[in-house]
Amino acid sequence: MGLTGLFLCTFLIVHMVGNLQLFKHDNGMAFNLYAVLMTTNPLIKTVSYLLYLSIIGHAIQGIYLVFKNKQSRPVQYAVYDGKASSTWASRNMGLLGTILLVFIAVHLSDFWFEYKFGHVPYVTYATDLADGNTKVIPTPADYKQYNKLEESTMFTPEGQFKITVVKDLYLEVAEGFKSPWLVIIYVLSMCAVSFHLYHGFQSAFKSFGWNHPKINGIVNFIGTWLFAIGIPAGFAAMPLYFFFK
Q: What integer pLDDT is reported at residue 132 of this predicted model?
């Protein structure tokens, strides 16, 4: 659980950095190029299979641990004074993990599946090689290449332009987050991510036996401010940005 959990934490950092391209005011060009990289680069595609296996393995192991915990104490305490020695997150990791598993399925169907197998339109960018300014121009009607980045150079009386044709996942994201229900699902799911990471990150180090006053402070700091607050807040900001934009 600790090993797969920390690997997934690493993925979240990379995913967050890439998705921050959504906030650039470039008509989605940076984010669309990032999407091409993530779906076509051989090394990244290989790592993605390890990611899928980690998610499945983490979920199965989590379900198993919840089952074993239930077996160890099938009957709850007769008296409970409300002063639990454990956190709410640690007592509800099974529930939080289930919410996240459902969210991952929704997220993949909304964007990854649609990008790979759906009807995401293409967008064409023209970058002026003289000043670096980029604008969107009409995409040829017969352009039907599958998930491929196409680049060329065009000469016009106005100057020389680099032409980039790519699937417009940025538009798909912007349109998807016009739905208030989808935004609510994403924001609430990020709350579950927050609680899950708050306990999970720190617990992983203890599972490895790395539980010492010299490192506990920095582990708790990173687990709280980066994984429990920073990353969930960053991901939650994306649907809110497009909804209110």
A: 86
